[in-house]
Each structure stands twice: as C-alpha cells, then as structure tokens.
Amino acid sequence: MGLRTESATNMRNFVTTRLSKFRLQILAGVAVLFVVYLLTPYDSDVRSALRFQKTIVANYIQHKYPSDKWLLGAQKYPIDSLRDVGVVIKTGYGTRRRVPQMLNAYYKEEFAGDMVIVQDYPVADNEKNYTLPDGKKVPALDIIGWMLEKKLLAGKENLERISKYKHLAEAIEGEEWFLSEELSKEIGWELDAMKFISGLQYAWQTMPKKKWYLMVDDDTYVLKESMSLLLGHLNYAKPQYLGNPVGDFKGRFAHGGSSAIISGAAMKKLFEDYPQVAAAAHLESPTAIYGDKLLSTTLMKLGIYLDEAYSRLFNGENPHATRIWGDRFCVPLVSFHALGSGNAMEQTGDTFKALKEPVFWRQLAKIYGAAEWDTYLKEPIRVNMNYVGRLDEHSTTIKNVNTVEDCLHNCQSRGGECLAWTWSQSVKECYVAPWAVIGEFQEGVFSGVNGPVATKLASHCHSPPAPAKIPIATA
C-alpha cells in the first residue's frame, strides 16, 4: 500500500513538474480553440478552414499512396439502383433535345427506375411525360413555375431573374420560337441555379424514403454498377453528400455536371427536420450564381459537408477527354459529363450498356479499344497520337526539346509524376502530365504513356468481392 501511494505521488510530481507554465498556456489555448470551434456555426469560416486543411492532407496521402483497400470489404449497405435511388434530371429550354437521348441511354443501362425531369420553362400538355421504350412514363415539371405556385419565392416575385423566367415562359407560350431560343441562351445558366434545392425537394415529396438521391445534368451519364459499388459501402441512414469537389474552402461543392449524390437521411434532415433552412435556400436561389454551390452551403448549415474521400470516383469530362490519374487507377469510375453534342450520349450509352460490373478508371482505354498499358513497355512511342490531351496548370511544357527520345526520357525521369507525354515535332516542345487520356489522333506529334509507371499502378489494384445479397423489401 505504501509503495502505491509513493508511486502515485511521484507520478503527480512528475506531471506537475513537466507541465510548466508555458505548457499550461498552450494547453489552455488549445482548449479555448476547441470550445470556440464547437460553438461556431456549422458553416463558419473556422470550421471550413480546418476541414479544408484536413482535406489537403488526405488528398496528398491518397495521391502519393493510392489505395483501394476500402473496396475489399463486404458491402454493408448493398442497394438496388432501380428501387433505392431517386434520379433528378435537370434540363432547360435550350438543352431540352438532349433529354430523350439521355433517357434512352439510361434505359439501355437498366438504370431507369424512379426519375423526374425538372426544367425551367412551362410544360405543354403533350410534354408532361417522356416515354421510355418499355412504355414507362417519366414526368417533367416546370420547377420554377412550381416554386411560384407553392409560394416558395414569396416576396421575390419581382426580382430580375424571376422576370426573365416569366419573359421566357411568355415567349414559349406565344410560340415565338426564335425569341425563346435566344432568351434561353442568355439566361439558361441563371435559371439553372434555381433548380437544385427545388428539384430535390420535389423529388423528396414525390419519391420519398429512397436510400439515395442522384442529381444529374442532361448531358451526364452515370455508370450504374460503379455507383452501386460505391454506395454499397456507405450508410444511407447517415446524412451524406458526395461528388466531384470544386470551390474554395468557404464553400466546397459537388460539381453539378459530374453528378451529386445525397443520402435519404440528408434529404430528410433538410426538408423535414429543418424546413426553414430549405425555405431560406429557395429565397436565395433567384440571386445565387451557382446552384450546386447553393446546395452545398445549404447543407453546411446543417453540418452536412461534401465528403471528399470519394471525390476521385466522379468525373466531369466525356470519355475521350477523361484524365486517368495514377491515384484513380484502382477505384470505380462513376460518371461522364459534357455529352450534349451530337450523339455523344447515345454512343456512350451503347458502349457501356452491356457491362454488368463496375468500371474502373484503369479499364477505360481497353473499353474504347486503345492499347493496353503493358504495350508501352515494348513500344513506348506512338506516331500522330496524343495521350496528354488538354494542357493546364498541372501539366508541364518543356521547350527546345529536339528529339522524341528526349521527351520520352524527360517523362520517365519524373517517375509517378508523369503518366503521359507528347512531343510536337514542329515547335520542338515536350508536354508531360500526371494523367493520361485514352488517346486522340493529332497529326505531327509523337506521344505515349509511361509504361513502367502505368503497369506498376495497375498491378497494385484488386478486384472487389461480389456484392452481398440485397435484402428483399417487405410490405
């Protein structure tokens, strides 16, 4: 007993001695900051800044040490995409012709469950529904007209954006087609900002109790099996918000074109538990610049933040412009965007309609008939091809590179920071990038993929286990 008392006394003296006045001041300061953090609003700059710094660290680790370990476990929350996901498709008068092609592509993929189309112009009597090949009806709604009818914009009816909407509606109803098209080109992006919160609220009211809600543009294609694999690992009973992040630390938001996914729990929290927050967002929408940002800042008020842990799965490009980064090789590819031109959506739908398994980023080149990664080990140089694509701040341009071999060597010397390179013979410039595209024809250039790096990355990937059996719904 005496030994225990003596030991306790010694420990107390050691702690007291070690905790000098300076150390106590530091601990007190940390405690004060922690309390301040807890007391600040969910959408405060303090919380946003700390969360952003945490994200930077996590992204750096994932970039340097990519891992697909989270895919190897069994899916705890398997879903039936037709039954468990409500889909909200945004369109406008200027892009309305995309919708039939999009619906057909989703139908071919067997991803045409509960859907609604929200648009920014009046719905004619013969256009209240789109019909799928199997006869199923997909309803269309003038979402801004719906907001006005439900008094969700009370006191804001005379704002400039609302006046522009009314002008467009009058032109359409008056069959002034040229004026309607011109107005839509001019104000379409403004009206789009009003579709996000309202479209989701309408979906919640008409498709209640879905596990997940997916919001997409009319030129966005979602790979159903990849999405299902992701969501099978996430708890829909918790408020969650997923997508491709853009924006600064004060309002990180999911890029609308890459798709945004919101859990049913998040929808319930916004539209049932805190309807006053949704109401305030409706009133803000006529002056909001970006609707996808408004969605994020609205959810932030409830403590629901964009989860950037899965941001690498979402993609804002069409298949041919998609950048395959090294840290994405082993994870599923969920979406494509910018498919509104010509028959791009139809072609994409035809390419992926027969695939009944998740698509991974590393597989994209093979799916489109491009060369396998290991072929660049023996044939590192390809003529009249470009595997870098569009240049930006993440690519590097080296001038005065006299030979294609020098450009190849420059890329390989950078290790994992160079996945593809292109050499322009005419201007003697070498372009290197930490990504690769599937390849596009470009006369007068030489290009290739860093074969040793690509094959090493691919060799570290694992195939996920088969999904667990999905529970059968009971009455």
From TrEMBL:
Occurrences of domain Fringe-like glycosyltransferase (ranges): 201-248
Top EC group: transferase
Enzyme Commission identifier(s): 2.4.1.122
Membrane-crossing residue ranges in chain numbering: 21-40
Signal peptide: none
Cell location: Membrane
A Pfam family recorded for this sequence: Fringe
Name this polypeptide is given: N-acetylgalactosaminide beta-1,3-galactosyltransferase
Species: Apiospora kogelbergensis
Taxon lineage: Eukaryota, Fungi, Dikarya, Ascomycota, Pezizomycotina
